């Protein structure tokens, strides 16, 4: 098997037929001697997506699918796909045609030139709200600044990776997945191609602000201790200021005896200190929550049904 294409699906009934046609349109002419396969992961869709995939699977034996028991999220869906790929190279692509399938042959050709990862970097993005673009831009810049591994900016999970990288990813058991960060962490020779990101072909985004927030926090907490350090440093700074003010208060009380019975300063310092403490506790809480998830060691996902042979399906799932 030369190439496996992983496609996470969450309510994509409007896009699946067109996606399948376009993928075949670019993969068939590649004339891969070992062949290719599609791996659809139905992430708890509430529409006709599963039925569409199953129909494709009866007509085309290269179509394999995993049906989750509920919505586990995009990153987990991709992880499940990685768990059962057989290809020497693996492509990850969104189902909504925002990532052009026509780029896959180029990504694949570049991989064969001697890279282990070729990711697709967004030169521009169309049809997305200004708020989404701005938050995405800020997030990628922030992440680049506070992590010590270089996670490429303006890049999603659309990429082609080699078997080596898939095996390395499968050895990373963390529960809060941020796959693009994990791939950067793995290393090897990586490069990128640029493309213009299209509008969503049909349907609506499955990434609510809540899911984006979770992805952003997962990415930051998995690859950076910076927020924890900020909590510590601001704690020291605030204590330093408080200590100086305390000295000054004692000085004016006992030496110059020039003081006001001031409740204003009291209130301000109590409120300020309380705020800083709450922020610090909150940040620590974010990390502890993730620690806790890892300690529980639950399987990442539960498979409801699949047309994959049992040996190839994921460890610990189902
Ligand atoms: N997706 C998923 N589970 C989810 C949300 C999204 O598998 O909970 C899939 C979705 O079907 C698509 C890809 O992840 O193939 C990217 O999602 P989407 O296009 O909604 O995100 P956006 O492009 O708006 O960031
Ligand atoms: Mg999309």
From TrEMBL:
Superkingdom of this protein's organism: Bacteria
Protein keywords: Cell membrane, Glycosyltransferase, Membrane, Transferase, Transmembrane, Transmembrane helix
CDD domains in UniProt: DPM1_like_bac (cd04187)
Keyword Methyltransferase recorded: no
Any one Pfam family match given in the protein's UniProt record, by short name: Glycos_transf_2
Record has Lyase as a keyword: no
Subcellular location: Cell membrane
Gene Ontology CC, one term: plasma membrane
SUPFAM superfamilies listed in its UniProt record: Nucleotide-diphospho-sugar transferases
GO molecular function: glycosyltransferase activity
Parts of the chain that traverse the membrane: 230-251, 263-289
Main location: membrane
Membrane topology (UniProt): Multi-pass membrane protein
Location of the Glycosyltransferase 2-like domain: 4-169
Cited InterPro entries: Glyco_trans_2-like (IPR001173), Glycosyltransferase_2 (IPR050256), Nucleotide-diphossugar_trans (IPR029044)
Family to which the UniProt record says this protein belongs: Belongs to the glycosyltransferase 2 family. GtrB subfamily.
Stated name of the protein: Glycoside transferase family protein
Source species of the chain: Hymenobacter swuensis DY53
